[in-house]
Amino acid sequence: MAELHSQTLASRWAKLPLPSQLANIGSEVSRLVLWIKKGNNEQVERSLARALELVDATLSDPRFGKKREEIEMLKHSIIGITKKNDLGIDPDSILAYFNPFFSMAALK
């Protein structure tokens, strides 16, 4: 089932422009932050896994090679907010990163 899900994701994801991909990642990260604040570790793990799955799908997209370093940093930041802020990343700050992408996706 997971393989089918990944294949479906890859084919659909490849059709989205980068702002739309980042808006979708941001939606999952917003759920992740919500669960962190509520202290629901089970849901944190699920949201983290889904967010990382989406980030990895973006990283595998050859169209965004020039953005790869930024996307890798984003991935580490997402992981960082779940690690008791070892990186000193404020969950609300990472959400602010996604605001322009939410706006761009809404305009399309």
Characterise this structure.
- With 108 residues, the protein is an all-alpha fold.
- It has one domain.
- The protein has five helices and no strands.
- The chain has helices at 2-13, 18-38, 41-59, 68-81, 91-107.
- Helix 3 (41-59) runs antiparallel to helix 4.
- The longest helix is centred in the N-terminal third of the chain and has 21 residues, at 18-38.
- The protein is globular and about 35 Å long.
- The N and C termini lie far apart (31 Å).
How would you concisely characterize the structure shown here?
This protein is mainly α and 108 residues long. It has five helices and no strands.
* DSSP, total strands: 0
How can the largest sheet be summarized?
A: none
Question: What low-confidence regions span 5 or more consecutive residues with pLDDT below 50?
Answer: none
Percent range of helical residues: over 70%
Shape: globular
Instruction: Provide the structure class.
Output: mainly alpha
- Percent range for β-strand residues: under 5%
Rg: 14 Å
Mean pLDDT: 87
